[in-house]
Amino acid sequence: MASLLLVIFIVSLVTHLVNSIPAAALNELLWILYNKLPTPTSKAAREQVKLKHEVLRLKKEMNGVSAQDDFARWAKLRRSHDKVFADLQKSDSGIRSARTSFDTTVASIRWVLTNGLRFFLQFWYAKQPLFWIPQGWVPGYVEWILAFPRAPTGSISVQVWGVACASVISLVSEALVALYSLATGKVATKAERKKEEPVLAAGVEKKEL
């Protein structure tokens, strides 16, 4: 059962890492990568970027022209801006629909590869003891809890092992984040002290004068 123990630990670790990334940020990154490939929306996405740049260029050029001093040029730029902006809105509606479907698909795949896989393992190996604990080490009711829900009494069930893995991974993750925060805080403090030293020295010199 060593392989199953490792599989459940890896699934718990991957689930924690994936859930640590905000869904919106992950979807945005995957959407950019998706449109880099020859996909149905890649051409439309490139056209949308070009239209956005063109709208910004025309708007900037319009702002640099006075409607009173050079009305003909300003009006021409305004018509071009309105036309490109209308094309951009049409492109946005199509891209937005494709993006909604893409986000839904990514969310479904994300759930299947993390929580879905975890639930499947817990269901499929519900009666499988991962390992046994020595008899008499813990009271009978504790043995029943450790074997919950359907593993043989006296063994560790998949569910309990999964909860233990998730708890340990969460604690280690929080500890690493705390250590990183402390380390960066100390570095910042040292840098601030180095900046403050010349100021203090200058203050002392002024007092001596």
UniProtKB/TrEMBL annotation:
GO terms for molecular function: protein-membrane adaptor activity. It is found in: Endoplasmic reticulum membrane. It comes from the Eukaryota. One of its GO terms (cellular component) is endoplasmic reticulum membrane. InterPro entries: Get1, Get1_fungi, Helix_hairpin_bin_sf. Residues 173-209 are cytoplasmic. Keywords: Coiled coil, Endoplasmic reticulum, Membrane, Signal, Transmembrane, Transmembrane helix, Transport. Residues 1-20 form the signal peptide. Pfam families: CHD5. One of its GO terms (biological process) is tail-anchored membrane protein insertion into ER membrane. It is a multi-pass membrane protein. Residues 1-4 are lumenal. Belongs to the WRB/GET1 family. PANTHER family: GUIDED ENTRY OF TAIL-ANCHORED PROTEINS FACTOR 1, TAIL-ANCHORED PROTEIN INSERTION RECEPTOR WRB. This is CHD5-like protein. The lineage of its organism: Eukaryota, Fungi, Dikarya, Ascomycota, Pezizomycotina. The gene is GET1.
